[in-house]
Structures are given as C-alpha cells and as structure tokens.
Amino acid sequence: MNPKYLWTLILLLATASVSSQTFQLFAEDFDDDYAGSFLLNSAGPGDSIGNNQWIINDSYTGGFGYPNTPSQLMVESGTIGGAPYSTYLHVHDVEAAPAVINASYDPGSASDHFAEMAYGFCTLGLVDIEFTFFWIGEGSATAYGQVYYSADGGPWTEVGEPLYNEQSLWKYEVITSTDFEDVADLRFGFRWLNNVSGDDPSVSFAIDDIIAVGTYDALASPVDINITFLFPDPVCALSTLVFGWELSAPLCDGTYQVQLSNASGSFASPTDLGVFDIASADTSGAVAVVIPGTTPEGDCYKVRVVRLSPLPYIVGEASVCFEVQDCPNTVTTLPPVVTYDTNAVCVNSVIDVPFFSTGVYLPGNVYTAQLSDSTGSFDSPYTIGTFTSSATYDPALGSMPGMVSGIVPVVPPGCSYFIRVVSSAPEVTGSVYGPLCIQECDIETNDITDIYVCISEEIGDTLTITYDTNVFDSIATYCPDNTFCVEILDAMFFNQASLCDLGITVDTESGTIELMIPGYTDLLALGLDAGVWYMRVIASCADPSENSLGTLIHLTIGAPADDPPVLIPEDTLFCEGAVIAATVVPYNPNSVYQFQFGAGTPFTWPFNPILINFAGVTGDVSLKVREINYGCPGPWSDSIVFHVIDVPVVAISGPAKACTGDTVTYSVPYFLSTYYDWSITGGTVVDTANNEISVVWDAEGYYTLTIFALNECGSGTGNKTIHIIPTIPIGDVPDQLICEGQTVNLNANAAGIEGYAWYEYGDTTLVYDDFYFSVTPDSTITYLLV
Q: Residue 17: is its pLDDT beyond 70?
C-alpha cells in the first residue's frame, strides 16, 4: 500500500448537504476566454466533405449573395450573452472567405462537416442531465443541422430534433436523455449536411451559449464515502495517521477534504486536515494526514472525508474512534557541513548546525546551538547561535532539517569539543555531535562579516573585502611571492567549487582583495551558481602551512531573471468563493516569489501554482508577481485581472396582477453562462428560454411562478405570486372627428372597473385617471385606455 499524502492545505467553503443538488457541468459561450473546447470540421459520424465548414467568429455580415446573420437580439425568447453580435459557432462557405465569413452556406457545394467537443464532461453518479444551447438555421429540406452525443468514447448517436432548419430567429433548445447519465466522458457534437440544390443561399446552422447541467440525488442514488481502516492507534499529536477510504460508486474527478472531529467524536466544528484528489476511475485508496500539534489528548477522535469540489458536495461516514496522545519531544543534532573540512574548524568561522526535531513546540520556542568546553562538558556551554521557531522538523513528516547558524566562539584550541541543539518551549536537550577539533586560524576573512551580492544575467558586481593576518599571534609568516585569494566551498558537501577565480592579490600581510562576481552567464561558466556558499581567504605560501586557511564566512549570490515571470491563471472568470490557481512561468525552485493584489501589501507564497481563495470578493481583482532570488528582487510581471462573479439573481420581474386571457412575459436578470428552469402552478406556458417565460393566464386565482437559476457560482430559487382576475369588457370608445381647437369628451365608463388610465399612444406619461376626460388637441392623436 502506498498512502497518498495531502497537498497544500487551503480554506474552502462548502454548503450543507442536501438531498438533491443541481449544478453546471459544462459551459461555452465562445467569447473572449474561448480556449479551444471544440474541434472543428472533423469527420464525426459523417464524411467531412464540401466547402460549407464550421468556423468560430463574431461576423454577422453577408454580401455577394449571402444573407446577413440575424443579430442575437432577434430571439424567440430568452437572452444570449454578449448580444447582439457575440462570438458564435457556425457554418460558412470557405470559398467565400475572407470576404464573407458569417453563418451562410453555398447550396451548390454538397457538404458534411462536424464540430465536436474537444474534451468531454463527467456525469458519474448524476441524473437528469440537460444539454442546452441557442441555435438558428434556415437551410432547407436538404440543408440542415443535427446534434449528436458520444458516451465514453462510443459511437456518435443522433439526439434532439431530427432536423435543425427553417428557423429564422435564434431559439433556445433543451435536450435530455437517460443515456447521458452515469458517463465518465460525455461529448456532444453539431453536424451540418446539405445536398447540391438550386436554392438561394440562406442562414446556415449556428450555435451559441452552450450549457450542460446535472443533478445528484442523495435519496434515490446516494454515494457513500467510508473509512475502511486507520493506523497507528494511538497516534501522537503532530505525527502521521494513515487511513483507507472507499466510495460505494464511482464519481467524477474531485477534490476531497479530510476532517478531524473533537475528542468526543463530534464534527460540529471539524478541523481541516487538508485536501486530496480522487480520480473518476478510483473507488478506494489510502491517505496520510498529520494530526495537528495543538490537538488535545483524547480517546475518541474520528476522521471523515468530504467531497468539496466540483459538486456534488458529499459528507462521508465517520471512522471508528482512535486515540491521540501527547508524545515526548526529541531533538537530534546533525553534523555541521564545516566539520567535513580536512582542517580543524576555525575560531570565528561561521557554522550552520542542522537538526531534526519531533513533538509539538510552542510559540516563542527558541532552538539554540551550543558548544561544549574543551573537555566535552556542557556544564557551562558556549552559545553558537539561536533560531526562533515553533516548527517541528520531523523527517517522518517529510520535513528538511532545521538549521541554527552562528559563529564558532573564541575558545582554546582542542579536539574534544561537542555540539548540540536544545529547545526552550518545551525544554528539550538534543543529542550531541562530536568530537570535533577547533583551532585559531591566522587569517580572518572580511572582519567575520557575510557578503550579499545581486547580479543580472550579464552584469556582475565588484566589492572590496578585507583579510587580516596574525590575528591571535605573530608566529605565522608568508613567503615574498605569497598570494592571498578567495576560495569558494559548496554549502552542502564542503567541496571546493572555485579557487582564486573571484579575487587574488600578492602580499605578505593584512590587506584587501577585489571580489569580482561576474554576471550570471559567466558565473555558470565558472562552475558556480546563485545561492549560499562558504567563502574564505587562503594563502599560497604560509609558514607553518596549517595557517594557510582563513576563517569562513557566507557568500550569498542572488541572480533573478532579467525578464519578469508570467502569471498563467487556470481561469479569469469565476465565482466568489472559488479557489483559483495561477502558475508562475518560468519558475525557479531556488527563488521566492512575491505577489501583490492591486496596491495591497506584497506577500510570498511557497508553492507553484499559487492557490487564491476568493471568498467574500467580487468584481475585478488584479495580481502581479516578481522573483526574489536569494534576497535579490527581479522586475514585476504584468498584472492579470480576475473577474469574480456571484450567484444568479432570481428576483422575478413582471406584473403580480393580470387578467384572464392575458399573455404575460416574466424574466430575471440575465447572467452569462447561466442555466434557468421555470415552473408554474397554473396558466399555459407559451414559450420559455433561459431567463424569460411567457404565460397565458386562462383562469382566475392565485398562482406561484418559480425560477431556479444555476451557474458555476451556485444556484438560487425565486418565487412570485400572481393574482389573476376576471377580464371585464370595456366598450370601444368610438373615434371622434373634430376641428382644430375643438374640445371633445371621451367616456369609457363600465361596471366593475375600479380604475382607469388614459395615455397618448406610444407614451408612458399618464394623461388622466378617470373614466372620462376632455381634451382639445391641435392635431390628430390616438389615446390608449388601460
């Protein structure tokens, strides 16, 4: 068994579990963010022949005998996103291009071409799949469109209307079938066929605003998520728990969260242990999680798995109880790299002491590297350096060693020294490393001061460094032709990386050296790279010879790329509350990347891609990034803009009172890529198309009109109560023929009518509000009585 470890912990918000969840599976409007979701002019179920072929553009103008494409405001009902002239999928005559590229075709060229989804969508565990789109197409009896689907790579099967033709207005279409359910890869395609005919060119088959939705029914077809095993039990806080999971039926690819209960097994306020992915082909597996260090001891903790994204949201079954214990802390001191040197460690040299630690450490904890006295005793230890951190550096959790950096104290020379790392909160004494030898080196490098330098790809930097001889005594001497030069040593293995390439001088006493760091390209040619190195000044001819090596300092070279990185978002249009990834390209794993939202405070993120939680945010949000390589910042990237949208608005517009026999249109505000579903308790639906519905009211009473709207942001349900009253006839008010300046009395009194409103025809300004009124017009005028 190979347990899967959880990836980056992120905050995700989810709604409570419900018995039925309807959500969006696919949406394509072919507009600015179109990313190639359709393959054009494939063979599909046909032959891929002829000049009339599929294209995607925003052309609606014909010419040279080809008709214009009706604008998208010309709909039977509903709203097309981006109307009147949004980008759309349609058939055109390639021989007429580029002059004519709108939705039109050449009846003289027999054609059969297919446009199919480049990738499918998953419906595993779902029911009531609906595939919706707007279409237009005049054609003829031998020139028409068709719709097909393919399930899990199977053959293309015709679905929907037999022929899509003789349609001069854009029309909303809904196709549903049980064959669409429980499919891992469901694809749709649009086919155009025409025979040779003598017909005049007309509008060809055109498609826009495609949306597919599905429903998860937790009552009729539930999918359970069970925990099959877990170990170890008991488990230490801040250590690994491995458990097995199992799905009762396959679901689409998804992200799942592991939740930890409290000590009594309650999930009223669960602890997030991280997220992991389950592919559609997997129904069982194992996951390793880390029990937080702040978890109190207890004997009935439980874990469960919750499906978060994409929908459906499913809460899994809780595991059996297991025990969490507060286990002892340990610190293990590891060998410092500088002890790999063939010579003894120099007093006043830098030293980096690595260590591992286990257990839980409290805020404010300080790791301290200590040096024993010359006999190996820690009764009165010397302090090498300190490192404040509450982190645990446990190799069992995949952690790299912690590191305490400092300076070797001034102590008597000897070979019985030991080093250890201790912690303060809690107080833990680490294991010791040693023995090691310490000596007084004659050459002191750069006043015991580390060096930091920033370079570009072609431009380096030059600094003046110092070296001092006879620091402790005057015993050492140097030959007349002695050279002092810079030695660079690898910080991981202490191998020599460069000798005298970066600086050299001829001298016999204390002095200076010009340290010349070349541009990054030339630095690589020397076998060096950006990063942290050990550096010291060495002598070529010292007497005695053991005084040839100077003390160590750190040399840090930063070399960010000259060109700024590029941020590539997984999407730029998404919903409030979404967690969106943006990838830095190119990405240097040895660098830190700093991000900035708008004019906000810059911050760093340790992983690529960056995961951004847009909870509580709507509108346009800009983000930029720059590389920081070993402390050296590079240029900022161009900003990318995220468009954060919200759930659909479901406030129904339209009269709350109408008369029997009236045909009334109701609507809700239109949102891009949104699915709408209307229902009503009375009346006769004349037409419905996404955000609009037209109803004939044929009986008096009170009725409820309901709209369910769904996009990738979520869903909403709106209701409106409609009062239908009987129609009371009003006798016609006869036309009046008068002379200019003559007054006429208009009268429309009828029994049972409570109110009257007179308007000039074509104007919404109220003229009079009773059953009669007098008017003296100066020209012919028409009045409307309501």
A: no
Of 336-340, 341-345, 644-648, least confident by mean pLDDT is: 644-648
3-state secondary structure (DSSP) of residue 397: helix
Tokens read off for 481: 């032709």
Q: pLDDT band at 36, cuts 50/70/90?
A: confident
Domain membership of residue 325 (yes or no) is no
Would you state the pLDDT for residue 766?
81
Whether 320 is covered by a domain: the verdict is: no
If one counts every other C-beta atom within 10 angstroms of the C-beta of residue 377, the result is 11
| Structure tokens belonging to residue 320 | 């059996």
- 52 and 196 inside one domain: yes
459 and 525 housed in the same domain: yes
What's the rounded Cα separation, in Å, for the pair 595 and 577? 20
155, 177: one domain: yes
DSSP string, 354-366: EEEEES---TT-E
- At 648 the pLDDT is 83
Give per-residue burial for 738-755: e unless 16+ CB within 10 Å, then b.
eeeeeeeebebeeeeeee
Any idea of the CA torsion for 583, 589, 592, 595, to the nearest 10 degrees?
0
pLDDT digits (tens, 9 = 90+) for 210-234: 999 999 998 888 999 999 999 999 9
Residues 6 or more apart whose CB falls under 8 angstroms from that of 732 comprise: none
For residue 665, give the amino acid letter.
T
In the predicted model, is pLDDT for residue 4 greater than 50? no
Distance between CA 322 and CA 301 in Å, rounded? 5
Domain boundary pick from 169, 187, 217: 217
Number of domains in the chain: 7
The CA–CA distances, whole Å, from 607 to 96, 561, 581, 600 equal 51, 18, 11, 20
Spatial CA neighbour of 686 closest among 677, 678, 695, 675 = 695
- Decide if 322 is inside a domain: no
pLDDT digit string, tens, across residues 137-164: 999 999 999 999 999 999 999 999 999 9
Question: What are the residues whose beta carbons fall under 8 Å from the beta carbon of 377, sequence distance 6 or more?
Answer: none
The pLDDT of 528-557, averaged and rounded, is: 95
DSSP state of 780: -
pLDDT of residue 166: 95
Angstrom distance (rounded) from CA 418 to CA 422 = 13
Residue 731 CB-density burial (10 A; 0-12 exposed, 13-18 middle, 19+ buried): exposed
In the numeric block, the tokens 């007093």 are attached to 347
CATH of the domain at 603: 2.60.40.10
E strand or H helix at 709, and its extent? Answer: strand 701-711
Residues 489 and 513 in one domain: yes
Got the DSSP string for 581-619?
Answer: EEEEES--TTSEEEEEETTS--EEESSSSEEEE-TT--E
CA torsion, points 58, 60, 61, 65, in degrees to nearest 10? 130
SS3 630: coil
Closest CA relative to residue 287, chosen from 710, 4, 703: 4
Q: How far is CA 349 from CA 401, 450, 493, 550, in A?
A: 21, 10, 17, 9
Sequence letter at residue 399: S
Weakest mean pLDDT among 313-317, 361-365, 739-743: 739-743
Q: Which two tokens mark 25?
A: 């599976």
| Residue 198 forms part of a structural domain | yes
Q: Is the pLDDT of residue 99 over 50?
A: yes
Question: By the 8 A CB rule, do 642 and 634 touch?
Answer: no
- Return the pLDDT at 762: 64
Helix (H, G, I), strand (E, B) or coil at 689: strand
Helix (H, G, I), strand (E, B) or coil at 367: strand
Cβ atoms of 125 and 250 closer than 8 Å: yes
Average pLDDT, the chain: 91
- Residue 544 is encoded by which pair of tokens? 């005695």
Q: What is the pLDDT of residue 149?
A: 98
Which pLDDT value is given to residue 729?
64
Could you read off the pLDDT of 506-522 as tens digits, one per residue?
Answer: 999 999 999 999 999 99
Q: What residues make up the domain containing 299?
A: 4-12+223-304
Residues 631 and 496 in one domain: no
